[in-house]
Write a structure and sequence with these properties.
The chain is α+β, with helices and mostly antiparallel strands. Helices cover 67% and strands 6% of the residues. The chain is built from 17 helices and four strands. The protein is elongated and about 80 Å long.
Length: 336
């Protein structure tokens, strides 16, 4: 009811006597779009029939009340998110987090033969459960939100798209799209309840800067980020990107692709072991994983996750640095 009232406020507080007949018709049609949840595209297309001398007053009148509706929704959304991740709800979430981490580490400490069948039935479900608890998604939040909040959001997004269309049609300068601003604010609210440690988030932010400065390819960045997210979910440290380990990894992947072998030990002179290859780039390595079969970083990480020896490497607590390199369908992951 709150959203409906605010919509009524928006559509009634606009000074009708100051608007042209065309503008009045547009607001009536906008109300019909919201009530029927259809027709927005046609309404936006019809804005193109208006001249700037009509669009500018239309936007001015719309903006007399639009911020009230937008800000009320964002406050209600933020209040809901905070309530979901505080008090008793937070205490229960922390209990589940401890249990998931315990389940994961019990499997991790087994020998490789005993680990293998449990990586899919215990370890990955633990990761997925932790992600829902510690890194909730917008979809997850709205799936549990009351119908009134979801209805409120639907109205606000329709109005935001309408406002963006006015700005675009009139070719007006606007710092940020109304719809994008709402989505950004929603993400900020959800991020504020993330349980990832600040030190880990700082390292991941630093990694983005390192990757940009050293021109680490995007697919390699994404692969490293996923591993770090998994480690942080489990309470482990995030790994710092070592661009030299990336170079060594990429070089070994290229050698395997070009010379048709798949092994940690290379037949090429001066590149026999992972330690040799890391030293050639001016750094040190403490472990290596290799994968063949896909160009996607998620596929490589998944392959390593379900392989006991590689799995132990990925989640070893003593690792501090990481490098990842792809060539073709070959991947190499080095730790330092």
């Amino acid at each position: 009811m709150k959203a409906v009232f605010l919509l009524f406020l928006l559509l009634t507080l606009i000074p009708v006597k100051a608007a042209t007949l065309t503008t009045n018709e547009i607001f009536v049609r906008l109300q019909a779009v919201i009530e029927n949840n259809e027709g927005l595209g046609d309404l936006i297309s019809d804005l193109e029939t208006l001249e700037n001398k009509e669009l500018v007053p239309l936007l001015k009148e719309f903006d007399q009340t639009w911020p009230l509706l937008r800000d009320r929704y964002l406050k209600d959304h933020n209040d809901f998110v905070q309530a979901q991740y505080s008090g008793e709800a937070k205490a229960e979430a922390n209990r589940q987090i401890r249990q998931y981490r315990k389940d994961f580490m019990v499997v991790y400490q087994l020998n490789e033969a005993a680990m293998k069948p449990l990586l899919k039935t215990k370890s990955m479900p633990a990761i997925k459960g932790l992600k829902k608890l510690i890194m909730p998604s917008a979809e997850q939040v709205f799936a549990t939100a009351p119908a009134t909040l979801n209805r409120q959001r639907k109205i606000v997004l329709i109005l935001a798209k309408f406002r963006d269309a006015i700005v675009d049609t009139a070719v007006l300068h606007d710092e940020e799209k109304a719809e994008q601003k709402i989505i950004s604010k929603e993400k900020e609210a959800i991020s504020s309840v993330s349980g990832l440690p600040h030190d880990g988030l700082r390292i991941m932010g630093d990694n983005d800067k390192i990757a940009g400065k050293e021109n680490v390819p995007d697919d390699e960045r994404r692969g490293i980020r996923e591993v770090n997210e998994w480690r942080l979910l489990l309470g482990l440290n995030a790994l710092i990107i070592d661009s030299k380990l990336c170079d060594a990894s990429r070089g070994h992947s290229e050698d395997m692709e070009r010379h048709k072998f798949f092994a940690h030990e290379s037949p090429l002179a001066g590149k026999k072991t992972p330690w040799d290859r890391a030293a050639n780039e001016g750094t040190k390595a403490s472990g290596e994983n290799i994968y063949m079969g896909s160009t996607l970083p998620a596929a490589a990480n998944k392959g390593w996750f379900y392989s006991p020896g590689h799995h132990k490497n990925m989640f070893k607590g003593s690792h501090k640095q990481i490098g990842l390199g792809r060539y073709g369908r070959h991947w190499t992951q080095l730790f330092g």
